[in-house]
Amino acid sequence: MTQFANYINGEWLQGAAVTRNINPSDLSDLVGEYAQADAKQADIAISAAHQAFPAWSTGSIQARSDALDKIGNEILARKEELGQLLSREEGKTLPEGIGEAARAGNIFKFFAAEVLRIQGQKLASVRPGMDVEITREPLGVIGIIAPWNFPLAIPAWKIAPALAYGNTVVFKPADLVPGSGWAIAEIISRSGIPSGVFNLVMGRGSVVGQRFIEDRRVSGISFTGSVATGNRVAQGCITRMAKFQLEMGGKNPMVVLNDADLNVAVSAAVQGAFFSTGQRCTASSRIIVEKGIYPRFIEAARAQLEAVRVGHALQKESQIGPVVDQSQLDQNQSYVAIGKDEGAKLVIGGERLQRDTEGFYMAPALFADCNNDMRISREEIFGPVAAVIPADNYEHALQLANDTEFGLSSGICTTSLKYATHFKRHAQAGMVMVNTATAGVDYHVPFGGRKGSSYGAREQGAYAAEFYTTVKTAYTAA
Fold first, then answer.
1. Which end of the chain has the smaller Cβ count within 10 Å, N or C?
2. Could you tell me if residue 440 is inside a domain?
3. Together in a domain, 218 and 266
4. Do residues 284 and 332 both lie within one domain?
5. pLDDT in tens, 61-96
6. Residue range 104-121: average pLDDT?
7. Region 416-436 average pLDDT
8. Is the pLDDT of residue 3 over 90?
9. Does one domain contain both 286 and 348?
10. Cα separation of 447 and 454, whole Å?
11. pTM for the structure as a whole
12. Is 211 within a domain?
């Protein structure tokens, strides 16, 4: 099998080692063998990006726009193929994989247009005979460290704005899913972007990511991943005063009030908590239900989960695919055991499932009669495990929803405009959903959270300029 190489300074280079990319739906299916860079190769990529920055950052904005539009068009034209690759290596169902590929393509096209409307200001000075201009300029070399759960969309929403605003890029995809990152790089390599402007460096975070953190030529790092790794990125960047942007964990609440439409509430909670195998930082892992509707909600959720089909990601009948790997499966099942030990009631699921192909299949686990002090209610599990917590009334539900170190997404199901309006204002989260799942956002609006979930400027949409540019104020005497 051909080794998929790193892309550095316009060339495809073999790595110092190789990693095997295995399909979590079928452990006998080898997706491919992918290069692993060492620290030396990471340094070469950073050097290439550093050298390419002056010309790219001051060059034609039309050329930037055209390149990003070409990338977006190709991704959209190949969304079924790319979606299948994503589903094969990560485990999302095929419709989810195709949808993510389409989102990635639309992100590149959005930023192709944003290139042409980078804004500044011209202001009158308080001093006579003086003009003031405020402009945005690119940072420099951007190190991008992406996670495994959205291997097309998240790299897209980091790479596209970085390039759009005139930065150069060194990109490290997650070790578990190099195929999607490589596919994006291969498309970018044919877009007309000059050598060195974009570089793909596959490899271990402890090696490649660490070089991004340490190298003073890397002006900023955009990271999505675990809280622990995010903290290390922050500490390293602060040491040398580099700019950084962190998207980390979530323990997102979905509040269900007595007046909610039961069908809407159950569908929103099940979709938010368990689809994409619960492997979303925006998943509804805490479901806070007012006591008047609590018994009916538990029974309806149990019935809906009983009918959910867990299976091979590429099979049409599958609604939920496998867990991404053995380590994640072990962690998920350890939390099922923890929940039982803590006294929570396991309503359904939690066991490993056998299918026609050997894979990391797990039945979605729903716990009832939880409280907000349990580990399954406080710690991010990142799998198909959700805790249902009873609430006395709306005020109690809001207090429980906000009682977390995280603050990414928060949701409420209610038919009351009063409570919906109050919740949107008082939920301590970066994103709030009413009568819909906590997971799932548009590609043209800001994404990000509060507290331990996020640090730095928002991602996506026009707000991406806050991270990928620096502001300059210039004075001219008449």
1. C
2. no
3. no
4. yes
5. 999 999 999 999 999 999 999 999 999 999 999 999
6. 96
7. 98
8. no
9. yes
10. 10
11. 0.96
12. yes
* Whether 429 and 281 share a structural domain: yes
CATH number at residue 257: 3.40.309.10
Q: Both 143 and 188 in a single domain?
A: yes
* Strand pairing report for 431-434 and 409-413: parallel
Q: Which of 247, 290, 380, 459 does the annotation list as catalytic? A: 247
Rg, the chain, Cα only: 23
Q: Residue 83 domain-assigned?
A: yes
List pLDDT tens digits, range 213-270. 999 999 999 999 999 999 999 999 999 999 999 999 999 999 999 999 999 999 999 9
CATH classification at residue 15 = 3.40.605.10
- pLDDT (0 to 100) of residue 28: 97
Domain count, the chain: 2
Give the residue numbers spanning the domain of 374.
Answer: 253-434
Mean per-residue pLDDT, 428-450: 95
In a domain, 446, yes or no: no
Q: Are residues 200 and 145 in the same domain?
A: yes
Q: With a cut of 90, say whether residue 111 has pLDDT above it.
A: yes
Residue 478 has pLDDT above 90, yes or no: no
Per residue in 316-343, pLDDT tens? 999 999 999 999 999 999 999 999 999 9
| pLDDT class of 362 with cuts at 50, 70, 90 | very high
Q: Please, how many CA atoms are within 13 Å of residue 116, restricted to the half-sphere of its CB? A: 11
Residue 247 annotated in active site:
yes
Instruction: Answer yes or no: do 79 and 148 share one domain.
Output: yes
**pLDDT score of 1 more than 70:** no
